[in-house]
Amino acid sequence: MPKSRATKPDLSVDFAGIRLKNPVLTASGTFGYGEEFADFVDLNRLGGVIVKGISLKPIKGNPPPRIWETPSGMLNAIGLENPGVDVFLAGKLPYLRKYDTAVIVNMFGYSLDEYVAVAERLDSAQGISGIEVNISCPNVKAGGMAFGTDLKATFELLSAIRKATRLPLIAKLSPNVTDVTAFARAAQDAGCDGLSLINTLLGMAIDVRCRKPRLANCTGGLSGPAVRPVAVRMVWQTARAVPLPIIGMGGILTGEDALEFILAGASAIAVGTANFVNPRATLDVLDGMTAIMREQGVRTVRELIGKVSVG
Ligand SMILES: Cc1cc2nc3c(=O)[nH]c(=O)nc-3n(C[C@H](O)[C@H](O)[C@H](O)COP(=O)(O)O)c2cc1C
Fold this sequence. Notes:
Elements: H1 3-6, E1 13-15, E2 18-20, E3 24-26, E4 48-50, E5 67-70, E6 73-76, H2 85-96, E7 102-107, H3 112-123, E8 130-134, H4 145-148, H5 151-164, E9 169-172, H6 180-189, E10 194-197, E11 201-204, E12 206-207, E13 212-213, E14 219-223, H7 228-241, E15 246-249, H8 255-264, E16 268-271, H9 274-277, H10 281-296
The protein binds flavin mononucleotide.
The site of flavin mononucleotide has 24 residues, from loops.
């Protein structure tokens, strides 16, 4: 066997100044604050944990039903339920900091001032590797996607957050736009260090017998394998348009799925809906990536980033 196949591949990456031992992260909102999955997954093995979205004040979220299973995916309208930034910093972050894994905090607000206030609080805390700004949640009435589908609002919001923190700043982009690359450029112009994509696609399901929407919120965000080709395409387009590193996500279940995103141009990937089906999905993805790299004699994951061959 050639030497490169026998040696363990190097999966470490530098993402916007954050050193990741491997590119496997958890997608926000699908892995709680890490502790919820610690019985299934050795968190030390993950490149990083991106926590459930945090806001200035606690939020109860939407009334049930909040989840509906679809072919190859799910619709959710959780409504960004969370305990608020102060409870997160005092009660959730200390647990995660015990592990040797990067902690990326996903956050959002209902106004520019709220976003900035959360960023300031996170900036003054210890043990946070980076901030992922959710400007793309389709399941809340104000904020979220309202910012992420308007170029001027995207630029103004991210510029204001940029001034509030020195932490690596990652903008989580919405797929619910015509040209995702325009939003990637706006994020770059605002001083962001990296991008995450994609958030969920706006969808709806109807119970034909009751003639009512399946979700109390009427519409929800579609995620899971059904969205993967859309996500891969958006990562590919974005990687060609801007030099910022990208966290790719959308329907990743296996190592092979993850490597699709890396070849499309992502420097790291996040596993989301798969965690609901298989709580060990993150580690299965990591092991699967390692196995394919070994099989192909690839020594470092860095040499695969953006290396899809397009004719
Ligand atoms: C139940 C649920 C909750 C989510 N909560 C958040 C959130 O709080 N913040 C955020 O930016 N994205 C959130 N997302 C979006 C995911 O992080 C991810 O971008 C999306 O689901 C696509 O990846 P997947 O197909 O692997 O799930 C959530 C997704 C799901 C399914």
